Amino acid sequence: MALDWWRIWPLTVNLMCMAATTSTPQPRLHIKPGTTWSDAFARCHELAPEAFDADRLRNLWGGEWRRTGDPLHSHSPVDGSPIAGPPMLGQDEAQEAIRAALDDHKEWRDVALAERKARVRAAVDAMDAHRELLALLLVWEIGKPWRLALTDVDRALDGVRWYLDEIDGMIAGRSPLPGPVSNIASWNYPMSVLMHAMLVQMLAGNGTIAKTPTDGGAACLTLASALARREGLPVSLVSGSGSRLSSALVRAPEIGCLAFVGGRSAGGQVAAALVDTGKRHFLEQEGLNAWGIWDFSQWDTLAAHLRKGFEYGKQRCTAYPRYVVQRQLFDRFLAMYLPVVSGVRFGHPLAVADDADPLPELDYGPVITADKATELAAKIDEAITKGGVPLYRGDIADGRFIPGQDTSAYVPPVAILHPPASSALRHAEPFGPVDTIVVVDSEAELLAAMNASNGALVASLACDDESYARRLAGELQAFKVGVNKPRSRGDRDEPFGGRGASWKGAFVGGAHLARAVTVGPDPDERLVGNFPSYSLYPEV
């Protein structure tokens, strides 16, 4: 094989990184006072005792917070310590909650838009008043560093404020759906994706019901839902396993629309369950987002984008875990990339050396669970054992930790050259701080490698000739394609969707989200999105 000489690179890379850094002893760290899980939960219990018992969370439907369901024995990914888990319901109670959500929906759809706007605005203001508590819950439940947790809350609230100003024109002449919107979302963005969507759905005249993600975010969503319900918003929040609640939350005749965010396996099961129902739906699923590099020289600019790309350990739907690099540029790519990956900062998001210190500025904390960290380690070992070349492997000792803390959910950054076709990392998104790199010689190889996952949400091309890059972009199976910059989900009026297997149903974002959860006067209306009988894409 022409690449055999790359087998020496792990040693070379480690030596380069050792030479580039000076070892200095870290100060002894501890959790910043006032930021412990017990501090956060006590504040929630005091603020919203109807939703937070002293020892557990409650479920919400029919306007009542109910001490029902068996709480999971959950642990924080931050340090393995116990936290309040979601109270898991059975199918009968979920069906009861769906019927109550329909009753809420029937009342709410007749409320005048001006009144709906006033109540949603009041709920947003209440959440804003407690934004730091919501963010602290996100740190403990899903491991987001403090700055990113605050950003998640702020994006949700600022986004809904934009809809409050724009909603009149978006839904003029349109009506709410025949039933409430059922929301099933992954754990990584409880506020800026799930709660944001629910508030817009209610603003458009619909009742809502959401299933709390099992892996994290239950307490944050419980507090946000308590503040929303106090303002009279028709929100229901339930917990339970997807397999148990699927028939109620996906197929129940009362449901007017299903909004799903998650992986392809679960998404495929949901899509199969929807086939014969005719329900309105939008299903966001994963894809292997790729960044192609061809005839390029702006390395400092690319380095800044790649460093930012490690935020939250690449645990987001628009992360870029795959780089496809022209062979003639690989040496220059590597010279740019290695300092970036070796400079990534990870560790305990709430650890400080002195009580007065600000919370640390990290790129990421833990992955969502210790099991996920173990899964990633197995995939990394598989890719290398089968022939992939480890270009960089960080060390857990490089993290910023409290002495003696549990670090089982932390994964140092890893980069693998040419993961073999038989390995999981070749075609699937790792959803963690793991990059894979593929070297190519032709335009055809570049496109094939970037389209490896049968559809993606985003892609980018780094190329000095932007007109050439835009031509290549037309051959990529990604909804949004950036040229010399990354693409993201977007805020406010920016549409969002996916091509191929990465998205099913209506697209969202701006007026597209408002139309997806309302009914227009034309019975033959064709929404923008991917449907069994057609695909219709907006300008991006």
UniProtKB/TrEMBL annotation:
<dbReference type="GO" id="GO:0016620">
    <property type="term" value="F:oxidoreductase activity, acting on the aldehyde or oxo group of donors, NAD or NADP as acceptor"/>
</dbReference>
<keyword id="KW-0560">Oxidoreductase</keyword>
<dbReference type="InterPro" id="IPR015590">
    <property type="entry name" value="Aldehyde_DH_dom"/>
</dbReference>
<dbReference type="InterPro" id="IPR016163">
    <property type="entry name" value="Ald_DH_C"/>
</dbReference>
<dbReference type="InterPro" id="IPR016162">
    <property type="entry name" value="Ald_DH_N"/>
</dbReference>
<protein>
    <submittedName>
        <fullName>NAD-dependent aldehyde dehydrogenase</fullName>
    </submittedName>
</protein>
<dbReference type="Pfam" id="PF00171">
    <property type="entry name" value="Aldedh"/>
</dbReference>
<dbReference type="InterPro" id="IPR016161">
    <property type="entry name" value="Ald_DH/histidinol_DH"/>
</dbReference>
<feature type="domain" description="Aldehyde dehydrogenase">
    <location>
        <begin position="71"/>
        <end position="513"/>
    </location>
</feature>
